[in-house]
Amino acid sequence: MTATNETPSARLLLDYVADVQVVTIHDVATYFSVSPAEAEACIRKVGLVSPDNDGTYEIPGNGDPDDVLDAWLDQYGVDHPDTPLAEVPDAPQLAAPEPAADERPWTGEDSAKVLDAALDTELPAEEALARAFSEPKGDGTEIGDPDYDDEPTDDGACEMAEAMEAAVQAERIADLENEVASLKAEMAELRSMVEAFVSTKAPSKGGKKLNVNGMMKAGLIAVGDEVAIEDSDGEIVGKATLVSHREVEVDGGDVMRLNAWAEQVTGWKSVNVYQKVLHVPTACLFEELRTQAAEEG
User: Fold this and answer.
1) Phi/psi at 248 (nearest 5 deg)?
2) DSSP label at 49?
3) Residue 87 carries which DSSP code?
4) Measured between alpha carbons, how far is 183 from 164 in angstroms, rounded to an integer?
5) d(CA 63, CA 21)
6) What digits encode the pLDDT tens for the residues 41-54?
7) 3-class DSSP state for residue 241?
8) Are 192 and 270 in contact (CB under 8 A)?
9) How does pLDDT run across 251-262, given as a tens digit for each residue?
10) Which 3 state secondary structure label does DSSP give 235?
């Protein structure tokens, strides 16, 4: 059909669709020289349908535009066949399709199954909901079973709410535990940094405390001595061998600076070597050795 500038009526629009069989909003807008919004309103008013929901529309029912128009306009007592679309009421919404054979209303049995899945698997509620119906059991409690209970119950609703709440609380607890672990690690690192600062500022009871080089010169420690790290739980980890007052040799023969080795073993950004490095031959921390030397000297 040739495009027209004529204002579409119900008769003209149905005749056009009957001629081309299938139209889009763009087709109607172009053919009648109207805006897309006006074209969509026209389509809605005469009750064209889009069976595949793909943006294409066609005449419903048996496809006869005369039958469609007569039945539709007679229902509302509107004159035809050339009634302007402005006077045509919107087509009623199509009735919702019947549920498929394997679909039923939500029930208390559904809620109970979600509760069981959430508690048994410790899954988030949404995932438990999906898994609760993934494998039919054939026992009348699965959607699609002939004996399915389609009567909702208050108990089921309560159980569903409890399952959702339990899942939310479990996730919250896990998040809090992760936060606590992270805070503990930060506290340990901060404590080490404070100890390092205090050890350099606090006056000693006796003489001046020695640094690592001074400790080696005084014979408190020596090249070849084994050293290790005492972690926050008092465990001895990360043994190495002194090769100078600044460096240690670790397993595999690699040589590292003393501070870098201590930071690697602890995983901290800063380590007070006097408070954390243990002199294995004497079983004393560096801090204990130099404190004793200061008090004696």
Assistant:
1) -135, 155
2) B
3) G
4) 29
5) 9
6) 888 888 888 878 88
7) strand
8) yes
9) 888 999 999 999
10) coil
